[in-house]
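New to this. Explain these tokens.
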Amino acid sequence: MQQTRPIFSDSLFGHHSLHMSRSFSLSVLSTFMVGILLALQGCSASNPNARLEKPISSATPQPSPAASTTPAPKLPPPTESDVKAALHRVFGDDFTPSFAGAKGIQFVVGDFNGDQSEDLAVTVRPAAGKLKEVNDELANWIIQDADKAFIPPSGKAVVTPPKQERPRVESGESVLAIIHGVGPGGWRNPEARQAYIVKHAAATFEGIAPSISQKAIRAMHLPVETDIIKEIRNNRKGFVFWTGGVYAWHPSAG
């Protein structure tokens, strides 16, 4: 009887051989790469001057510098032409300035109502034939009497002011015209048209001063700090100041 030998499939053997060959190649390659890495690490350790890549540091956000507050530019000193132009813009031809040919200070500037804008104060008289227009109730200015200004007593929340008749400007009477400024341009601003005509306040100017410089004003506890107009009226020193709604005259201490 003929002995039968086992027959192995050539395809199966070939596939198994190929698999073994690939596994051996990968193993050799892996061993080779590991050896290279270990060699590089050894070189780096033996060479302290070797260049190493530094990690990227995250930038810490820095606070932006605070915006600098630029103070409003100081306005140039007023000239007579500047004052005349402002008077004509607000009052038209109804008033004439009193400083023509006069000596001393005839107009002053300052923040008289405490709104951080420069105002103008100048002595004027009603123009000839314009008395009716000056006292017109529909005029674009407020006529008031500095000697009759109501100042609310401090410490009271609700105060009813006394009723007063509307003052009238007399023919030839000298009064104080005050034009309130608007914005950085102050009283020169074309939009500056709010004005007061103040009786018993036209006097010899002595300049301006902070309102808090006067003990009498500090005792009133007025809502805002302003500039005051220092004057000599009837041979007595005093000042015109803003009460928060109107202008008043007060004698100086002493």
User: Anything to note?
Assistant: Residues 83 and 140 are 18 Å apart (CA to CA). The mean pLDDT is 78. Residues 10-46 form the longest helix (37 residues). Helices lie at 10-46, 80-91, 131-134, 215-220.
